[in-house]
Amino acid sequence: MPELPEVETVCRGLAPFLVDATIEHVEQRRPDLRFPFPERFVDRLKGQRVTALERRAKYLLCSLQSGEVLIMHLGMSGRFTIRPAGSNAMQPGEFLHETGGNAAHDHVVLTMTGGAVVTYNDPRRFGFMLLAEAGKLEDHKLMRGLGVEPLGEALTDTYLAQACQGKKTSLKAALLDQRIIAGLGNIYVCEALYRAGLSPRRAAGTLAGRGGKPVKRTTQLVPEIKAVLEDAIEAGGSTLRDYQAPQGDLGYFQHSFAVYGREGLECQREGCGGTIRRIVQGGRSTFYCPACQR
DNA sequence: AAGAACTCCTGTTGGC
DNA sequence: TGCCAACAGGAGTTCT
Question: Which nucleotides along chain C are within 7 A of a protein C-beta?
Answer without folding.
Answer: 7-12
